[in-house]
């Protein structure tokens, strides 16, 4: 029953079971003719060229299906094919075992060579490779650190300049501020009243009345628009005669004299210069007292 096509199919070393979508190997060898016939009929209905008019390979595929079916239907051809399949599987197993054995032999040889090199004092190739990698990593780390250091050095002068500029600007802003004090027991001043008083010296940008920690004394910070306005305010008597204001610059500059020294020659007290803390509070109390005494004398003259 085997034809020339059958012989050609056998020579192609194709798996006829797989062509018919059947299990191969030992399981395929146990298939009955009825199972093979059923598989062929099912595949021929699906893979017939009439069912695949747009598939250019449909005819060749169907011919291969028919040739494989003929081999499996022919008892002698099938036995020969099964024997060839077994030989092919055995050869693959031997090749796999041989490859495994070769890999093991190669690994054993490498291990013996490393052991011999270690005994002779020669460096291990794996250790040499690891050492080279560490050297490269260390070099990259050094280059990165040098780059960051150069970048930091370049940015330092600009940062210092910016910081210095900010300090100068802050100092200039403080030179536009006045510290104003008065006796609360003689009458209080509101922010609106203080603004009205100091606007005659220049524009008033802001007024901050400090919290009432003391029942007898009160104070405020008056922010003027210019240092000239601060200078003018510290050289003038401000507030009511019954409760005069003590006006001092928040920051004493070379061109700013003490307000009290400019207002009255009745005291020989030194100029205010960087007075802070308790000493400043005592000085304020003394100045207020003298201003009040001067106010009373002025009323007596009038």
TrEMBL record:
<dbReference type="InterPro" id="IPR035979">
    <property type="entry name" value="RBD_domain_sf"/>
</dbReference>
<feature type="domain" description="J">
    <location>
        <begin position="15"/>
        <end position="85"/>
    </location>
</feature>
<dbReference type="Pfam" id="PF00076">
    <property type="entry name" value="RRM_1"/>
</dbReference>
<dbReference type="InterPro" id="IPR001623">
    <property type="entry name" value="DnaJ_domain"/>
</dbReference>
<dbReference type="InterPro" id="IPR000504">
    <property type="entry name" value="RRM_dom"/>
</dbReference>
<dbReference type="GO" id="GO:0005783">
    <property type="term" value="C:endoplasmic reticulum"/>
</dbReference>
<feature type="region of interest" description="Disordered">
    <location>
        <begin position="40"/>
        <end position="62"/>
    </location>
</feature>
<feature type="compositionally biased region" description="Polar residues">
    <location>
        <begin position="154"/>
        <end position="164"/>
    </location>
</feature>
<dbReference type="InterPro" id="IPR012677">
    <property type="entry name" value="Nucleotide-bd_a/b_plait_sf"/>
</dbReference>
<feature type="compositionally biased region" description="Basic and acidic residues">
    <location>
        <begin position="88"/>
        <end position="117"/>
    </location>
</feature>
<dbReference type="InterPro" id="IPR018253">
    <property type="entry name" value="DnaJ_domain_CS"/>
</dbReference>
<protein>
    <submittedName>
        <fullName>DnaJ homolog subfamily C member 17-like</fullName>
    </submittedName>
</protein>
<feature type="region of interest" description="Disordered">
    <location>
        <begin position="88"/>
        <end position="126"/>
    </location>
</feature>
<dbReference type="Pfam" id="PF00226">
    <property type="entry name" value="DnaJ"/>
</dbReference>
<dbReference type="GO" id="GO:0003723">
    <property type="term" value="F:RNA binding"/>
</dbReference>
<feature type="compositionally biased region" description="Basic and acidic residues">
    <location>
        <begin position="165"/>
        <end position="176"/>
    </location>
</feature>
<feature type="region of interest" description="Disordered">
    <location>
        <begin position="148"/>
        <end position="176"/>
    </location>
</feature>
<dbReference type="InterPro" id="IPR036869">
    <property type="entry name" value="J_dom_sf"/>
</dbReference>
């Amino acid at each position: 029953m085997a034809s020339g096509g059958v012989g050609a199919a056998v020579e192609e070393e194709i798996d006829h079971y797989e062509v018919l979508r059947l299990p191969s190997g030992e399981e395929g060898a146990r298939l009955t003719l009825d199972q093979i016939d059923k598989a062929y009929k099912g595949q021929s209905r699906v893979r017939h060229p009439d069912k695949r008019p747009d598939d250019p390979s449909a005819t060749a595929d169907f011919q291969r299906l028919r040739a494989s079916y003929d081999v499996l239907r022919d008892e002698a051809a099938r036995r020969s094919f099964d024997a060839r399949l077994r030989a092919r599987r055995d050869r693959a197993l031997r090749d796999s075992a041989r490859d495994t054995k070769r890999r093991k032999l190669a690994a054993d040889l490498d291990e013996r060579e490393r052991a011999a090199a270690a005994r002779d004092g020669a460096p291990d190739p794996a250790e040499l490779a690891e050492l080279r990698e560490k050297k490269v990593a260390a070099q990259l780390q050094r280059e990165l650190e040098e780059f960051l250091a150069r970048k930091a050095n370049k940015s330092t002068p600009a940062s210092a300049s910016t910081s210095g500029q900010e300090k100068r600007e802050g100092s200039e802003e403080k030179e536009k501020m006045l510290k104003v004090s008065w006796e609360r027991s003689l009458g209080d001043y509101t922010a609106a009243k203080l603004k009205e008083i100091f606007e005659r010296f220049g524009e008033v940008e802001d007024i901050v009345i400090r919290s009432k920690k003391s029942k007898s004394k009160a104070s405020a910070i008056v922010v003027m628009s210019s240092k000239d306005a601060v200078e003018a305010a510290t050289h003038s008597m401000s507030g009511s005669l019954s409760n005069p204001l003590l006006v001092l610059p928040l920051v004493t500059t070379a061109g700013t004299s003490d307000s009290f020294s400019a207002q009255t020659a009745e005291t020989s007290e030194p100029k205010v210069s960087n007075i802070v803390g308790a000493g400043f509070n005592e000085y304020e109390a003394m100045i207020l007292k003298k201003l009040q005494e001067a106010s009373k004398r002025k009323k007596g003259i009038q």
